[in-house]
Write a structure and sequence with these properties.
- Its EC number is 2.5.1.25.
- GO terms for molecular function: tRNA-uridine aminocarboxypropyltransferase activity.
- This is tRNA-uridine aminocarboxypropyltransferase 1.
- Belongs to the TDD superfamily. DTWD1 family.
- A hairpin with a 4-residue loop joins strand 3 and strand 4.
- A 5-stranded parallel beta sheet has the order 6-5-8-7-9, sandwiched between helices. It has a two-stranded antiparallel sheet with strand order 1-2. A two-stranded antiparallel ribbon has the order 3-4.
- The longest helix has 16 residues.
- By secondary structure, the chain is an alpha/beta fold.
- The chain has 7 helices and 9 strands, in the order H-H-E-E-E-E-E-H-E-E-E-H-E-H-H-H.
- 29% of the residues lie in helices and 12% in strands.
């Protein structure tokens, strides 16, 4: 390992306080140990961590990563213009490999009983899980794409109109990519995770964190981006990002602490 690689690994090993620290997510040391790309044994593409085309773990043993068993099968319908390398839905496929299928629109699976399928999509008819009887569904569909692409899929796929619509509580995204929407538009894996978390809270209470590892890769990449920009303060993060304070520079935390100390009343 070169000195440069060792320095990068050391930075990754530093603890970063982040929005996912309270979740029960497995240790990601196996990802931190990966310093170079590897060849996917199936498609021969050179990738890092996993192959986003074959949905296979690359460069490490699958047994070193967590697995999640989902209570309801998940079908992800990905817009054909959504780049595979940018899709976070792949995280769910790798972590819950037996319970997730990804389809590229306009191809969709054969939904023999669409009325018993939940479509995660907002709208006047969308309900939260607390208002949906558990026995009324046995399949879940999530759309993967930009907001415009998602609306195109739902408006032009008749079978989706027959499904029950479900929504989740509003939350702030932690996605690092620029989106031309407000910060309550979640990355696909965030939406998937919160839906299954709400499933656990609604039908399996008390929730014990059993679906938290759906965020395994997402947390790792979030921390990787934070540590990279924190270490290279001259590097400019996207000025278009809707959250102007997205990178949590360490000195900002110190300034806040100093501000709090200075604001305390003197005795």
């Amino acid at each position: 390992m070169s000195q440069e690689e060792a320095n990068k690994k050391r930075k990754l090993d530093q603890t970063i306080k982040g929005p996912f620290d309270q979740l029960k997510i497995a240790d990601d040391q196996a990802l931190k140990d990966i310093q170079q790309r590897s060849t996917c044994p199936t498609c021969k593409k050179t990738v890092k961590y996993f192959c986003y085309k074959c949905h296979k773990v690359v460069g490490m043993e699958r047994s070193t990563l967590p697995s999640v068993k989902l209570p309801v099968h998940l079908d992800v319908i990905k817009h054909h213009k959504e780049l595979d390398g940018k899709s976070t839905a792949i995280h769910a496929k790798i972590i819950a490999q037996d319970d997730v299928d990804i389809h590229t629109w306009p191809e969709v699976p054969d939904f023999t009983d669409p009325e018993r399928t939940l479509l995660l999509f907002p709208g006047p008819s969308a309900k939260q899980l607390t208002d949906i009887p558990r026995e009324s569904f046995d399949r879940i569909v999530v759309i993967d794409g930009t907001w415009i692409q998602a609306k195109q899929i739902t408006n032009n796929t008749p079978i989706l109109k027959k499904m029950q619509r479900v929504t989740i509580a509003p939350r702030k995204t932690h996605f690092w990519r620029f989106q031309n929407v407000d910060d309550q538009h979640l990355a696909t894996i965030e939406a998937i995770y919160y839906l299954y978390r709400e499933f656990g809270e609604t039908y399996e209470a008390p929730y014990d964190g059993k679906y938290d590892n759906l965020m395994f890769y997402y947390k790792f990449f979030y921390n990787l981006i934070q540590s990279t920009y924190q270490a290279q303060k001259s590097a400019k993060f996207s000025h278009r990002h809707q959250q102007k304070d997205y990178i949590k520079y360490r000195q900002d935390g110190k300034k806040e602490k100093d501000k709090e100390e200075n604001s305390k009343p003197t005795s």
